[in-house]
Each structure stands twice: as structure tokens, then as C-alpha cells.
Amino acid sequence: MDDLLPTLFSKTFFIVSAQLLITWLTTHAVFVFFERIDPKLSDTNQSDSKIVEDVEQRWRWIFTDSTQNLILVVWFATFLILLFWGEYQELPISFSVFSAWSIITGIMLEYVLITFDQGLGRRVIALTAAIILLCAVIGIYSKIDLGFLQPFLFIALNGLVLFSILRLFGAMKSVRQGAVSSFGIGLFTLYLLFDFNSVAKRQAAGQNSWIDAMRMAIKIYLDAINLLLHLLSKHHHS
To answer: Has this prediction a pTM greater than 0.85?
Structure first.
């Protein structure tokens, strides 16, 4: 593999691309499964809320809170395994754990996408891909050190998490979700720039291990998924 992917950037890009592809294929497979359950999902003339209502009435077990909570618990447990154990293993093991996490992420993501018009979902996915590629080009080839962004991004991320927790418990309901989504879009776009720039700096410093590539790939993957979710939320509330 080192002969085919000789640089830290090529290793990181390979891992991120493969995992995003796995996630996309999983969302497609889950949608096909839902479509077989209820062909009305293919009817673009029907409202999304009506589609979900119909499916929920016929196949309530799929949309139960307990099912979604179980998926969330498994997702978080797999993430912790990847973060604290998997990324330090040999490539076949770390890649397999990452792939399992990507599959679970794809299942969770389709729960979100299933409530959107499929055309809108595809456009948002295409927009996310374009933003990722643009951030990769700027972050890697701009020759600008974006390390100064780290403390500001950390503070902003903690603020976003705190705000989400407060909204979950019923506080700060007056703040429009569209504004929060716009903030999230800007934040994770900057995180993509920062993390791609970090890859360039690590490569210039001589780092070129699969562990380093896996660590950076996990960060970029999280940036991409969060950006996609906030873009979907922004379009939904606009």
C-alpha cells in the first residue's frame, strides 16, 4: 500500500474517500430497503411528511424511538472503539472498524435523508462534496498556515454543542434553527480548511504513517458529515 500511496495526503485522501463512499452506499441501500417497504417513497409528488406518516403507520417498528436510540448507542460505542483503539491498529483492523462506523453513520444519515425530497438530498450531497474538494485545494495548496484558527474553532465547537444541549432541554427556543445551521456550516467549513491544512503541515514535517493518516481521516470525515447535516437543516428551515 505504501508504494501506491506514498504520501500522508494520499493515504488520508484514500481513507476519507473510501469511508464517504461506504456511507453513501449505505444510505442508498437503506433507502432501497425503505422503498421496497413502501413504494410511495419513489413518488416525488407526495409530501415528505405524508410519506413518513404512511411508512410509520405500516412499519412502525422501523421508526420507533427505541430503534433509533439503539443505533445511536451502537454508533457512539463504535466511534469510541475506533478513536481509542482502532486507529492505533494495523491498517486492515483500523479500516474495518472505521468502515463499521461509516455503515452505522450511513444508517443514521438515511433516517434524516428519508424525510427530505430526494432531489434536495442529492443536491445537498453534491454541494457538500464540492465544498470538501474546495477546502482540500485551499487547505493543502494555499501555503497559508491556518494553525491560528484552532483555539477559535474549539471555542465555537463547544459553544455549538452547549447550545444544542440547551435546546434539547427546552432552553433557547427563541433562536432560529436556520441561524444555528448557518453557524454550523461556517464552522465545519473552517474545520475542513484547518484539517486539510494540518495534513499538509504534517506531511511537510515528515509524518507519513497510516496511524497519522487514519487520525486525520477521522477528523475530516466528521467535518464532512456535520457539514452535510447542517446544510440539510439549513435548506429544511429556509
So the answer is: yes
